[in-house]
Every structure is written in structure tokens, then in C-alpha cells.
Amino acid sequence: MNRLDGKVAIVTGAGRGIGRAIAEAFAREGATVIATSQSDHADFSGNIEFHKQDVAEEAGWKDLVSAVLERHGRIDVLVNNAGIIAYDPLHELSVADWDRVVAVNQTGVWLGMREVLPGMLAAGVGSIINVSSIWGNAAVSGAHAYHATKGAVRNMSKNAAITYATTGVRVNSLHPGFIETPLTDAQAPEVNDYVVSMTPMGRAGRPEEIAWGAVFLASDESSFMTGAELVIDGGYLAQ
């Protein structure tokens, strides 16, 4: 069943983890996928095209969207997935590190939406999926810049959803819980163990479990959803 047959989708932060799982799931469901990453991960096959991109750069977004429209004539889906984290306590984080987290996690999402919206509005259809986090809804000690930006993504998505609600363009946020990815593998084991222990299902999620949620939001199956938060977290936020 090709749930995304004929759709053209951009997925950022697709070199690994959740982003890669989303790109591969979209491709399996029939979409033409433009997968972007700041690193050199060009080992995609089939109907996945790779573009190197720093989502915090305005010029890069303009070049990417222009190239996709020239090659494919449309952009049906945007998944703003790229994100980074800083662990320094609030009183120790440098301005440079704060600015970089905001640039990637928040400004990058804004730039992506800004660049794809004109084409989507002209076509009268589109699905934008902004990957937030359970940490966009609730807080734990540390990683305050990540919390701030993921909360911003959550509310920015709602604003865009309401602003464009009558145009055929839908905007939703996706909120993963603790997922086994290279990003979480790089965290201190005690941090990971704590979050898993606080997850009612008692385990970490898998990237593909987030990817199927993204497929739903990208597909016409979710045609009456906008401004929603799709939480996939093993029950964490239900507590």
C-alpha cells in the first residue's frame, strides 16, 4: 500500500536516527524523498535523493527548495527534523552554544516553513511536520536550550496551523519520547536509564516507530489534522 504515492517530500536531519527512518519509510510508501543532512551521508538508494544542508542557513534553504521545485515541480511534504542538543547548565552555557541550538532547532524550522509555504499555498495543499519532543511539553533538569527550542517549535507549529488552516496546508508537530538513536547513544548512560525508567512502557522507542507517525501526518489519512501534537512516547506525558 503506497500511502504517499506521488508525493514529493523534504526530510531534514536525515543522515541517521529518526530522520533517516522517516526518509526510508516515506520512500517505501511511494514518496520521492529529498533527504538532507549537514554531514556527508550520501548512501541512500531508490527514490531518495541526498542534499547536504545546514538548516540554519537561509541561502541553503532557498537553493534547496529552488532545486526541488525545478526538478520535481512541487513539494508536498516538509519534515523539519534536524536538531541538536547542549547539556551545559543554564549558568554555564556560552552564548555561542545557545545561538547554535536556537539556529538549528528553531530558526531552521522557521526557515524551512517559510521557503516551502509559497509553493504549497499556490498548490492549495501541503503537510508540514515539525519534530518537537516530549521536552517541548515538559521539562527535566538540564538541556535548557533544547527545551526552549522544542517548546518554540510546538507553538510555532500551532501558529502556522491556524494561520493557514483554510488554505489546504496543514502543520502538525511530532513529539518523540526517548528513542534509541545516535544522539541518545552519545548521552550519559545514567541519563538514558533515568528517562527509560520514567517511561510507563519501560523501554526506549525505535526510530521506525516515530517514522510511522510521520507517514500518517504526511498522508491524506490525516487530512482533518492541523495544529495537533502527535505524541509517541511510551506513555511518558500521560503521567
Automatic annotation (TrEMBL):
The lineage of its organism: Bacteria, Bacillati, Actinomycetota, Actinomycetes, Micrococcales. Signal peptide: none annotated. It is an enzyme of class 1 (oxidoreductase). The keyword Oxidoreductase applies. Gene3D superfamilies: NAD(P)-binding Rossmann-like Domain. GO terms for molecular function: glucose 1-dehydrogenase [NAD(P)+] activity. Residues 7-163 form the Ketoreductase domain. Keywords: Oxidoreductase. This is Glucose 1-dehydrogenase. Belongs to the short-chain dehydrogenases/reductases (SDR) family. Its EC number is 1.1.1.47. It comes from the Bacteria. It comes from Lacisediminihabitans profunda. InterPro entries: KR_dom, NAD(P)-bd_dom_sf, SDR_fam. Pfam families: adh_short_C2.
